[in-house]
Specification:
The complex is a heterodimer of chains A (about 260) and B (about 280).
Chain A lengths: L3 H14 L19 H19 L1 H7 L1 H14 L14 H7 L9 H15 L9 H5 L3 H4 L11 E5 L3 H9 L13 E6 L6 E5 L1 H11 L4 H11 L5 H11 L7 H5 L1
Antiparallel strand pairs in A: 1-2, 2-3
Helix pairs in contact in A: 2-4, 3-4, 3-6, 3-9, 5-6, 6-9, 10-11
Chain B lengths: L8 E4 L5 H6 L6 E4 L10 H12 L2 E4 L13 H14 L3 E5 L2 E4 L2 E7 L5 H18 L4 E3 L14 H12 L2 E5 H11 L3 H7 L5 E7 L2 E3 L3 E6 L8 H14 L4 E4 L7 H18 L2 H4 L1
Parallel strand pairs in B: 1-2, 1-12, 2-3, 3-4, 4-7, 7-8, 8-9, 9-12
Antiparallel strand pairs in B: 5-6, 10-11
The chains are: A mainly alpha (about 260), B alpha/beta (about 280).
Chain lengths: ~260, ~280
């Protein structure tokens, strides 16, 4: 049999998200009707909405504070945080926006939310030394194809079929105006080789290359994956871009020793 | 080695004040943070805190261990807290007499628990688990009350004292919470301030509150969005006149002013502490 404390906590938790009077036999009867109960209802909802706003600043700026907070309140009532570290709260927010009727006219909003989340997760990801271009250059050319390059633990990337990177970066920076857009697919790369987060555009081939590296493929296989999506891709330029951005982690020690 | 929190005044540390805080050398200044904001795999946050910790004692003030839930504390959350305790060697670790995680969902608030024998036993057991995992005693903060419960088996001070005696934890007495609760429940805050056993109090919190927009002063909110109120300062001085000086924190979480403004408020607490020192120590 459930304890009285458990029964109370079940009822209290339910009443937080379901306004209205409770039945007389409820363990929280006599509490929910007091003005003070609204303090808890408001604080819980505000905490969730504030966390969603902090984790999705580009979305919030695109739609404005009022719209964002109203949408976030609907999401929070459906999906409370699963744990207390709110830095990753909102894992399903992008999917929610895809089916949220008021967002129907903003079909790009869900992908902007996805990019916002990539940024948040890069910010708190594990630290690691980025790959030193000299270490890569010192490998014998005969071994290069078999080497596995690992994405840096704080690197995040994604290819989008719309100009999401432009919308996202313009929303986050400057005065937030989006301006004219050339409607085509765009990739985004976020890196944090040291403390400062950087973002830059990424080609479709670049995203395919990094996906292959993340899947523990060899350089040779990653190159083939990149050429598979874009036969004209400039692989040398791509690898230089990834090295400059700190998107790759240091080689495993055994690779440089052999 | 964990440094001791000096018997002086500290400040809740906000990210926007990192640069000012890092360079501030006010004597006896220490900082308190919510550990949940540092439960990350890596990145600049941990580096900021390391920089602060290099020159200042640190206190970890948890908001989410959910010690008053009728469930064991989440072992993953405890592990992450223990990792921060190991890494930053805080002088104080504290938590709230409240619950927030229940049946797999977290509610970002400090939810109230009725003061019953059943709740007391559960809270004592949960604090025991936390202290065992952290390998140190914690301090437990008294809540702000907004609700009038029907039948309660313990008075507030009796409940806090009994928890501390049975679990071995200390108390963090939040004077603003005492004031807000007394206002909301129609009690005399001085009675609570006078009754908490001084030897159990490891830390004192001071913060601002506000009146509910709908109900006015009949419903006070522990909002941490304003300077400490004059009534709360008076209660604080009454408390340390009775129990002697204790590490005292100025908390501010909303409507955050310039660092210098918080430092001035902190100086007032610091001056009160110096005035409350026994003559031999002050000399």
């Amino acid at each position: 049999m459930a304890s009285e404390l458990s029964a109370y906590q079940d009822a209290f938790a339910r009443a937080l998200l379901a306004p209205g009077a409770d039945r007389d036999d409820s363990p929280v009867a006599g509490l929910t009707a007091q003005p003070g109960f609204a303090v808890y209802r408001n604080t819980v909802l505000k905490g969730c909405i504030d966390a969603l706003a902090a984790n999705h600043p580009a979305v919030a700026r695109l739609v404005g504070d009022e719209w964002f907070r109203a949408a976030a309140a609907v999401y929070a009532r459906e999906t409370l945080p699963s744990h207390p570290t709110l830095l990753d709260y909102g894992a399903g927010f992008a999917e929610f926006l895809e089916t949220f009727p008021p967002a129907a006219e903003l079909p790009y909003l869900a992908d902007v939310a996805r990019l916002d989340r990539l940024w948040s997760s890069a910010h708190v990801a594990a630290d690691a030394a980025p790959l030193d271009p000299a270490a890569l250059a010192s490998l014998p050319p005969s071994r290069m194809g078999a080497v596995r390059l690992r994405p840096h633990p704080a690197a995040r990337w994604r290819w989008f079929e719309a100009p999401i990177y432009s919308i996202w970066s313009r929303s986050r920076e400057g005065d937030g105006t989006i301006g004219e857009l050339d409607w085509h697919g765009e990739g985004a790369l976020l890196t944090r080789p040291f403390d400062d987060l950087r973002h830059l555009p990424l080609t479709r081939a670049g995203a395919a290359f990094l996906d292959a590296c993340a899947g523990s493929e060899s350089v040779e296989a990653a190159v083939l994956a990149a050429l598979d999506v874009d036969a004209q891709a400039d692989l040398a330029a791509l690898i230089r871009q990834l090295l400059d951005a700190g998107a790759l982690a240091a080689l495993d020690p055994w690779i440089s020793q052999e | 080695m964990p440094s001791l929190i000096p018997i002086s005044a500290g400040l809740g540390l906000k990210p926007q004040h990192f640069a000012d805080a890092k360079d501030c050398m006010a004597p006896g200044l220490w900082f308190e943070v919510h550990p949940e904001n540092y439960m990350v795999d890596g990145g600049p946050r941990l580096r900021w805190l390391e920089t602060i910790r290099r020159d200042h004692p640190l206190s970890l003030h948890g908001v989410a261990l959910s010690l008053a839930a009728d469930a064991d504390p989440d072992p993953r959350h405890l592990d992450r807290l223990a990792a921060l305790v190991d890494r930053f060697e805080p002088a104080l670790v504290s938590e709230h007499l409240a619950w927030s995680t229940w049946q797999g969902a977290y509610r970002p608030d400090l939810l109230p628990v009725p003061r019953t024998a059943e709740a007391l036993a559960r809270i004592v057991a949960n604090i025991g688990r936390a202290q065992e995992r952290l390998r140190r005693p914690i301090a437990l903060e008294n809540p702000s009350h907004y609700l009038r419960f029907g039948q309660l088996e313990y008075g507030e001070v009796e409940f806090l004292t009994e928890i501390a005696r049975r679990s071995g934890c200390a108390l963090l007495l939040d004077v603003n919470n005492v004031f807000v609760s007394a206002g909301n429940l129609g009690d005399d805050p001085a009675r609570t301030i006078d009754a908490v056993p001084g030897e159990l109090i490891a830390e004192i919190h001071l913060a601002g509150h506000s009146a509910d927009p709908l109900h006015g002063r009949r419903l006070l909110i522990d909002s941490h969005d304003a300077p400490v109120a004059p009534d709360v300062w008076r209660l604080y001085e009454r408390l340390i006149a009775r129990i002697g000086p204790r590490p005292t924190l100025i908390e501010r979480d909303e409507n955050i002013p310039a660092f210098a403004d918080l430092l001035a408020e902190r100086q007032r607490a610091h001056d009160s502490l110096v005035a409350a020192m026994p003559m031999a120590e002050a000399a």
